[in-house]
Design brief:
Blueprint: H1 15-28, E1 34-35, H2 47-56, H3 72-86, E2 96-99, H4 102-113, E3 119-124, H5 129-136, E4 140-145, H6 156-161, E5 167-172, H7 185-198, E6 201-205, H8 225-228, E7 229-234, E8 247-251, H9 253-263, H10 272-282, H11 286-309, E9 313-314, E10 322-326, H12 333-344, E11 346-347, E12 349-350, E13 361-365, H13 370-379
Parallel strand pairs: 1-11, 3-4, 3-5, 5-6, 6-7
Antiparallel strand pairs: 2-8, 7-8, 9-10, 10-13, 12-13
The chain binds pyridoxal-5'-phosphate.
Length: about 375
C-alpha cells in the first residue's frame, strides 16, 4: 500500500469534479440534464483572438518553450488593459505576470508567501480553491464571515478581534463569487489599511469585473494598494476563454518577482499562439463588453424567472456570472439541489459548496443559452 501524502488528508476532490461525474452518469442513462451548475462560458471568444492563435501556428518558434514571464507584448497588452479599463498604471517590465489561468495563480501566490502553520483569511462563502490550496501547503484557513445583511462585505470589527498572529494572506474577491456582490470604495480603503496595519498580503481575485457590471474596479487603483496588495485577473469569463488558461497577476515588483520564482520552477511558459490570441482579446473595444453583457442580461432575466418558479428570492443589483438565490426558510441547500436534479433534471449548485454561510442559498450559472434556460423554466 503506497500511502498518499499527509497534506491530502484534509483536501477533498473538488466538488464539481465529483458531482459532474454523477451528472454525466445520469445523462448516460438518458436523463435530459440541464447544467446550470458550473461557470464555464459557452459563448465564443473574440473572433480575432482565435484567428491570431490559428495564424501563429506557422510562425518560427511557435512550438518552442516560451519565456517564463510571457511575451513583453502580452505584458504590455495587460498593462494597457489595466490603464484603459481600471485607470491603473502598471509597468509591463516588473508589475505584470501572465499566468496559466488564475486558479493556478492561487497556488503560486500561496507557495511564494506561506510557511507551514501560517494562517490565511478566507471568505465564507467564497471560492473553494483558497482553502484547499492553503491546506495543501499545510497552512491554516481562518474563515471570515460574509453576510447578506452586510452586503457580503467583511465586518472589520470582527476581523480586528481575531488572533491575527501568523496571518500572512487575506483573500478577497469582488465582484464576489458566488453572491455577485460589489464592494464599496470604503471597503477597499479599509482592507488596504487593515493589511498595512497587520502586515498581511491582501490578494484581490478579480475575474468577474466585466460581467454585468458597469464599473470595473481594481484594488490597485486605491491609495497605498501596491504596498500590500496583489491582484489576480483572468481572460476566462471576460473573453469566454476559460479553456485557454490565461490569467494574470499584478502588483509591486517584489511580490510579483517572488511569485515568478515559484512559477518558473513549475511551468515552462504559455503556448505562443495562446499569448498571441490573448493579446488580441485584450484589445477588444467597448462593443465586446456591451454585446457580451446584453446576452447575459437576457439570460439572467430568465434565470430570475426560474428562481422564482422554485420559490427562491434574489438581489437584482449584483454582478458576475451567476444568480445567487435564497431558499424558502428552513430548506437545506444540498437537499434542495438534489431534489431539483431528481425531479426536474436541472443541476444547480448548493451554496454550501462555498462555505457554511452558503447554507440556505443556491447558485445558478448563466452559462447556458436562452433556449436551455427557457426549457428549465418550463420544467418547473
Ligand atoms: C472566484 C474565482 N476565482 C478564480 C477562478 C479561476 O478562474 P481561471 O483559473 O479560469 O482564471 C474562478 C473560476 O471559476 C473563480 O470563480
Amino acid at each position: 500500500m503506497i500511502e498518499v501524502a499527509k497534506r491530502l488528508q484534509n483536501v477533498e476532490e473538488y466538488y464539481f469534479s465529483k458531482k459532474l461525474r454523477e451528472v454525466a452518469l445520469l445523462k448516460s442513462q438518458g436523463k435530459p440534464i440541464i447544467n446550470l451548475g458550473i461557470g464555464s462560458p459557452d459563448l465564443e471568444p473574440p473572433f480575432k483572438a482565435s484567428m491570431l492563435l490559428q495564424d501563429s501556428l506557422v510562425e518560427e518558434k511557435a512550438h518552442q518553450y516560451q519565456s517564463y514571464q510571457g511575451l513583453l507584448e502580452l505584458r504590455t497588452a495587460i498593462s494597457n488593459f489595466y490603464k484603459n479599463h481600471y485607470q491603473v498604471n502598471l509597468s509591463p517590465q516588473t508589475e505584470v505576470l501572465p499566468l496559466l489561468g488564475s486558479k493556478e495563480g492561487i497556488m503560486h501566490i500561496s507557495m511564494a508567501f506561506l510557511n507551514k502553520g501560517d494562517k490565511v483569511l478566507i471568505p465564507n462563502p467564497g471560492y473553494p480553491t483558497y482553502a484547499s490550496v492553503t491546506q495543501l501547503l499545510e497552512a491554516k484557513p481562518v474563515y471570515y464571515d460574509l453576510k447578506e445583511e452586510n452586503n457580503w462585505e467583511p465586518d472589520f470589527v470582527a476581523l480586528e478581534r481575531l488572533n491575527l498572529k501568523r496571518v500572512k494572506i487575506m483573500w478577497i474577491n469582488y465582484p464576489h463569487m458566488p453572491t455577485g456582490a460589489n464592494a464599496t470604495n470604503k471597503f477597499y480603503d479599509k482592507v488596504i489599511a487593515f493589511g498595512k496595519r497587520h502586515n498581511i498580503l491582501i490578494v484581490n481575485d478579480n475575474p468577474y469585473s466585466f460581467i454585468l457590471n458597469d464599473k470595473p474596479i481594481s484594488i490597485l487603483r486605491y491609495k497605498d494598494a501596491k504596498d500590500v496588495c496583489l491582484e489576480l485577473n483572468s481572460l476566462s469569463k471576460t473573453f469566454n476563454m476559460a479553456g485557454w488558461r490565461v490569467g494574470m497577476l499584478m502588483g509591486n515588483y517584489d511580490f510579483v518577482d517572488a511569485v515568478l520564482r515559484v512559477k518558473s520552477n513549475m511551468d515552462s511558459g504559455m503556448f505562443y499562439g495562446i499569448q498571441k490570441g490573448a493579446i488580441e482579446a485584450l484589445k477588444c473595444s467597448e462593443m465586446w463588453f456591451k454585446s457580451l453583457n446584453s446576452v447575459y442580461q437576457k439570460r439572467r432575466e430568465l434565470v430570475w424567472k426560474l428562481a422564482k418558479g422554485l420559490n427562491c428570492t434574489y438581489d437584482e443589483h449584483v454582478s458576475g456570472l451567476f444568480v445567487w438565490a435564497k431558499l424558502p426558510a428552513h430548506l437545506k441547500s444540498e437537499e434542495f439541489t438534489d431534489l431539483v436534479l431528481k425531479e426536474h433534471s436541472i443541476f444547480i449548485t448548493p451554496g454550501t459548496v462555498f462555505g457554511s454561510n452558503g447554507e440556505g442559498y443556491v447558485r445558478f450559472s448563466l452559462c447556458a443559452s436562452e433556449e436551455i434556460i427557457e426549457e428549465a423554466v418550463a420544467r418547473v
